[in-house]
């Protein structure tokens, strides 16, 4: 199973809505089960540098099938996955990347959000992932 | 002046509609005046390899403020811009990248489309660019 | 549907057998439906430079759902896809990349072979793809 | 002396067997004395992001002729090799990369394993390296 564009667009719409509710401006990326981009939106005035971060967060979540923040806890100095970020042409391992699952719980893709605090980024990603 | 996300989404919707009318499956990318991605959509079943090409076409059009096909005529062996594709982390210089202008004719971004013949790619990009 | 490792290993075994029959030494790569590597083998004495080519051929075939040689016919100087090789971190568009389909004809991956003439590369790739 | 494909395949078979015994799903890469890929296998359901990590672990071990974890102890903040991971298009310096030696103790290649905890990754790499 793989995410459809219709599902990805519903997810982005919900993420935009949550971002507006939080008074933030986000870059929002959705990748499929193969970690390839399906849909993307950069809200007006969102940080340019967050464009790449949003895409890398979505890919990172799918690469390891967990939220990005969970990887970041292990990649700290002295941690078991220190500097894992150098793999896969660059990972982003702080919060804002969340898995997308279908009704049966199968992973069908991931969403990555960047543009505000990591707490807000994660909240917007969660809101998006919950849209389907 | 720069393209807004709302405009980019209108452009993508129109491009998707044209793509469906042509019975094709496209990757569609919209970049702003700074050649940075604003919105993207990969239609279900569209070629994976066209993801990167669609984005590169949009960037290429804005990099030189002309349709991608016009650059490709100059980059042939013996041409004045031979192998310009090696610059900017890779250009795509065949048709499918088209400038987006506002009502006054100011360039505010570009659209890149990939997934079918270059004729269809260009037609879908033109339809998208004409949406605003 | 996606290729399994068991299927990929059967394909590589068949490709190695064909390569030996042709008195060649090949690099053989198999990617899944997401164009990600599943299995790889470099036969003793095979060209080192063919390692990357074999992987790129497999990816290229899946990126556009056709044999690599078909793309190469369109990417020549003056062709409609001239210099498409600059996309996707480098394509290889001469023969040796072949799609892998299941019994129902669904594309589940691709094989890329490099190490001899393009005729031999293609013959080995075909032999591998026919193993399942 | 250099590793043969037959040896590399025996190593991968042993590593898969150990991985199954540990109830894990691994990406397994074997490089030769020149740090170039010889054989690779991604077990069904293994993390996509571990593909690149397994290959980088194998290369890293051979690049410096020591297990990857030993390098990671020196690359921490304040350490003598701080951020060495930036070299060679990206190193991975946590456990899971192990040297492969022949009967005389000569280094003939390296194995890299990724897909579980670093303890499991290392155990599977050790099992593989001990197969010859």
TrEMBL record, chains A, B, C, D:
PANTHER family to which the protein is assigned, alphabetical: PROTEIN GLCG, SLR1406 PROTEIN
Top-level taxon of origin: Bacteria
Signal peptide annotation: none
Protein name listed in UniProt: Heme-binding protein
């Amino acid at each position: 199973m793989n995410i459809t564009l219709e599902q990805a667009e519903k997810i982005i719409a919900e993420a935009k809505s949550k971002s507006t509710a939080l008074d933030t401006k986000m870059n929002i990326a959705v990748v499929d089960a193969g970690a390839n981009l399906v849909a993307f939106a950069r809200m007006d005035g969102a940080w340019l540098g967050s464009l790449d971060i949003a895409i890398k967060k979505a890919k990172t979540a799918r690469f390891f099938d967990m939220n990005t923040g969970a990887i970041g806890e292990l990649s700290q100095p002295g941690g078991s996955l220190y500097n894992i970020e150098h793999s896969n042409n660059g990972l982003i391992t702080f919060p804002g990347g969340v898995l997308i699952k279908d009704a049966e719980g199968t992973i069908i893709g991931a969403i990555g959000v960047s543009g505000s605090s990591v707490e807000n980024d994660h909240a917007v990603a969660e809101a998006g992932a919950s849209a389907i």
